[in-house]
Design goal:
Elements (H helix, E strand, L loop, with lengths): L37 E4 L11 H11 L7 E5 L9 H7 L1 H12 L3 E5 L9 H7 L2 E2 L3 E6 L2 E6 L9 H10 L2 H9 L2 H20 L10 H10 L5 E4 L6 E5 L3 E5 L9 E5 L4 E5 L4
Parallel strand pairs: 1-2, 2-3, 3-4, 6-7, 7-9
Antiparallel strand pairs: 1-10, 5-6, 8-9, 10-11
Helix pairs in contact: 1-3, 2-4
């Protein structure tokens, strides 16, 4: 979504605050009994080496905290790269098996594309039992109306990135890419990653964050949806827009885990992932 494709925003940029809140969740009346809850994560960036610390932290999370959830929402960049199901299902076999075990246990897992992993197709969904989501998902989670997206759609000041994004998300371009031999795709993927790292190192940090006018425009377009949830920026936080609207940002993963969003019928709250 580009800046010309969003509705016009209101005047001025709203003030917002960062409010980290990682305290333990409780049900009403300060009871320690847990309510049914769902989890939102993003930007895991799983690596192809199974023993990588991020992979090990994520596998522990799937085997523990995720097993207690009603639904696990993954809002993009689960994988560092995905060059087609015929490559990815082999490169990330350890994660595919763990995700399948989670969905087989009865936890619903829903995923939308990120800017690193948008080439998953039917074989991936069949192998994992994960349910695909559109790039922007409007839904209700435990009574809360929310918008879910990866977050790069909101970085509209970076016009060069948005131009490249439109090209890469073109279905015909993707079809041609997936028809290439594996070695060609792997070489192209490596070149694109190297170029992206070089560009990011020299880019104005403001361009890599969300544009507040774009955020306002989304809230103006969907005024009855008070919560916008995304990742991508690697800046976890809770941002308030007036008395009604909230922007929640989940964090990227490290060996210590990440900041994720927990949603139950009483609240939305950022918490550390449990990876021990």
């Amino acid at each position: 979504m580009t800046k010309t494709q969003i509705p016009p925003s209101g005047e001025g940029v709203p003030s917002f605050s960062f409010k980290p809140d990682f305290s333990a969740r409780q049900s009403p009346n300060n009871s320690t009994q847990k309510l049914p809850f769902s989890l939102v994560i993003g930007d895991v960036h799983l690596q192809t080496e199974q023993t990588h610390p991020i992979n090990q932290a994520f596998l522990r999370f799937l085997a523990t905290q995720a097993r207690q959830a009603h639904t696990l929402y993954i809002i993009g960049d689960l994988f560092e790269r995905w060059l087609g199901d015929d490559i990815g299902l082999t490169e990330y076999a350890f994660a595919i098996d763990a995700l399948r075990a989670l969905t087989d246990s009865g936890v619903a897992v829903k995923l939308l594309y990120g800017n690193r992993d948008f080439l998953m197709r039917e074989a991936f969904w069949d192998a994992t039992g994960i349910q695909p989501l559109p790039e922007v998902k409007h839904t209700t989670i435990h009574g809360h109306r929310v918008m879910l997206c990866h977050g790069d759609e909101l970085c509209t000041l970076d016009t060069a990135y948005q131009h490249a994004r439109r090209k890469l998300r073109n279905r015909f371009v993707q079809w041609l890419f997936l028809k290439m031999p594996k070695a060609h795709r792997q070489a192209i993927g490596a070149r694109l990653r190297t170029r992206s790292q070089a560009e990011t190192a020299n880019k104005d940090p403001a361009l890599m964050d969300v544009d507040e006018q774009t955020v306002l425009a989304w809230f103006n377009a969907w005024p009855d949806t008070p919560h916008l949830i995304h990742g991508h920026t690697h800046k976890p936080g809770h941002h308030r827009y007036g008395n009604r609207h909230h922007r929640w940002v989940v964090g990227d993963w490290s060996a210590q885990g990440a900041i994720l969003l927990v949603i139950d019928e009483t609240q939305l709250k950022l918490e550390p992932a449990q990876v021990d």
